Amino acid sequence: MTGSLNLWLIPLVPFAGFLVNGLIGRKLPKLLVTAIALICTLIPFLLVAKIWLEFSSVTTPYIEHLGTWIWTGAFHADFDLQLDQLTMVMLLVVTGVGFLIHIYSVGYMAHEEGYWRFFAYLNLFMFFMLTLVLSENFLLMFVGWEGVGLASYLLIGFYFLKDSAVRAGIKAFVVNRIGDFGFLIALFLLIAHFGTLDYREVFSQIAQHPEWQGGILTAIALFLVLGATGKSAQIPLYVWLPDAMEGPTPVSALIHAATMVTAGVYMVSRTHIIFDRSPFALSTVAIIGAATCFFAATMGLVQTDIKRVLAYSTVSQLGYMFLACGVAAYSSAIFHLVTHAFFKALLFLAAGAVIHSLGGQQDMRVMGGLRKKMPVTFWTMTAAVFAICGFPPFAGFFSKDDILYHAFISPNGGKILWFVGWVTAGLTSFYMFRLWYLTFLGESRADSHELAEQGAPVHVRSDSKLVSEAEHAHGVHDSPWVMLGPLVILAILATIGGFIGVPAAMGGHDEIGHFLEPVVGSGPRAPVGESSGLELALSASVVLIGLLGLLVVHILYKVKPDLPHKLATRLHGFYNLVVHKYWVDQIYGALIVTPLLLISRYLLKGLFDRGVIDGAGFAAGATAQGFGAIVQRVQSGNIRSYAGWLALGAAVLLIASYFGYTAHFSPQ
Amino acid sequence: MHLLLFLIFGGFCVAGALNLLLQRHPINSALSLIVVMSSLAVLYLLLGAEFLAAAQVIVYSGAIMVLFTFVIMLLNAGREERTHGSWAAYLVGFPGAAAILALLVYIFLSNRGPLGNASLGNYLVTTSDLSRVLFRDLLLPFEVTSVLLLVAILGAVVLARKEH
Amino acid sequence: MVPIVYYLILSAILFSIGVAAFLIKRNIISVFMSIELMLNAVNLTFIAFANHWHQVSGQIFVFFVMVVAAAEAAVGLAIIIAIFRTRSTLNVDQIDLMKL
After folding, report:
1. How would residue A68 be classed by pLDDT, with cut points 50, 70 and 90?
2. Which of A635, A637, A644 sits opposite C23 (nearest CB)?
């Protein structure tokens, strides 16, 4: 295919949507705002689809040069966009899922005050995310990276009149910033070592020097990992993601499940050439991934807020993706990214439908019995739950399986990583089915008002009116089709989406693995002579532990409903630890936040700002004043003293001029 | 002869100046100044500036000093009081004045050779010589000074008027 | 036959007496008169040099100095009268409205 692909249109159309809705959306009728927002998301999706259909005729990587950006003697960076297989996959996910969530939001946010603002921010997010995946150099990626952080902050704090939402937004932004600091250091190291931030040039330089191992590349990789842990909510910078649930549910679905948090995974995959040269960095990534995976799953076991469960689930699944990257199985990570986008977005949207129908209720302890009242929501969510727990033939089975298999066969402790991942699969199954049971099955506990008044989080509209259940008096039912449509589409994708990555052991062709191979390599190879039996055995074990989780939930919540309470009291030490999220927020607060605040307030503000800086200004003023007071005494108004000084001054001038430069008579 | 005249009238100048310095009542100072100016007129004559000598007497002693005297009498100025206004005038001013004097004397004395002598009548500038220059080469400044005098008159009238 | 230097030294002496008088005198009119003395001393210098160099421009300058001195004397005395009206004193030390 000749001619330009016009990649620049893909991010800029949503940006135009942001401008229009952001600047004048307040005055426009809601229909027009909706139309602009949807069109500005549909057009990129159609463009991406068109490129996808003609993808075989595109020479990759396809570079589009939009203009010069920075041009100094030592360094230059341009506005370059690129398209290769990895970007293609990301584009499809971002624009496709993004568009579905936009449609869903039309229904979900229909009664919101800041409707126009929501869609403006959402379009802004799309712009930055697309810039991030389309960029050809690290600098433009960083622009997108920061931008999605900004959009996330704006959207988390969407209900800006609610204190907790505002604080959550700030927390997200600040924690992200710490990660961004790591990213920046990596950028500086890249410039120092390679002299450029362009992907092609950096990677080709590395390729030409096979002897470069470790050392500076490890440093760069580790700093990149710091950035990724911030953006993708891994240990130690995951703390913002559960709080980010203060934002509206479509935001949680799009940004904190499907796209923004996967930027870290994308980045590691994109820069895998650097990571491949540094086994230490790869191990770090794998360990962080596995640890986060397990750790977050344990916290998800006991949450009562439906969105919090899903948040910890997101952190945990992202841990899987990092684990995959850590064993150099990058295509597995991306595969899981794609399937996770489907089922996690679906989970959040379905949860949002439930919350919306219950008039803002998010506490699972007062839900139940919604299966009959909201059938479509129930069935779509069931598909998602089965997908995430890794049951065949749903999507999550193939992707999670891929990751665990590659972890198992990777050298240096891969089996330990596999074991952690395997146990976490069981935990995942437990908390997902627990959510499923508490929300949809059983009898409705919606009348147990005592629980409701125990401060269960209540959804607050942007005009700060607390919506209580009573207001939604026309009964609990399925949402309107504008919200259900995306649920159905995502459910279909979650069901069949795994078929793009069926491994050879199960008779498939691993299309996605082969598709991504030119960009990310093919991952760790099985030891020679290994049959497909190992892979089948591992997959079976995952399914088994998933079923075990389902069984436990069935016992705890259906057969013996008072057992959970007894277990909690018996193991109350462990239970308390987990319910309070291992006190991590408090530890961070005490160790980092409070000292920083104290230092800022007393040292930096009190001592430096008021003392040194203000003091310098004050001292300058006082000095001038002091001198002035002294010199003022000359201005006495007394003419004779003026005359005296005049005489002296004249004498000095005359003497200086006579004995100075002017020539005078030379005596004979 | 020339020298004698110079010494006498030079002496009068210095004596009058010192008297101006030392007298307490301003009218005495004014009269001493008239002495100074008249002596200076003679000295101008000795140097061959006849028109200026006449002008000195007519304008300076005859008009300006009379004006001073009128003002002193109008304002009924009395003896000076001994007020201590400023130390700078004495401590700083006198050294300055002394320094100026010393410098000037030094310069003049160290160049006395080239300066030569003035003898009576060696260079006489007649009124016609002076007026030739004034009315031909320097006509514009001359006319401007008449405007200057007009402005001065107006200024003096306005400033000295009684407020109503 | 008088050396011109004598005239110059005489004018220097008159000038410095004028400066001293300016510094010592407390009556405004006396101060003003010392200014006139200084001007006259300078006039003498000009005429002495005009004689030495046989140029008439020295005397022209003196002419203009006289004109300006006359104008200045008129205006200055008018100012003194105005000050006397407001301050009722001719003591220089008491006319110090220019102090900060």
Report:
1. confident
2. A644
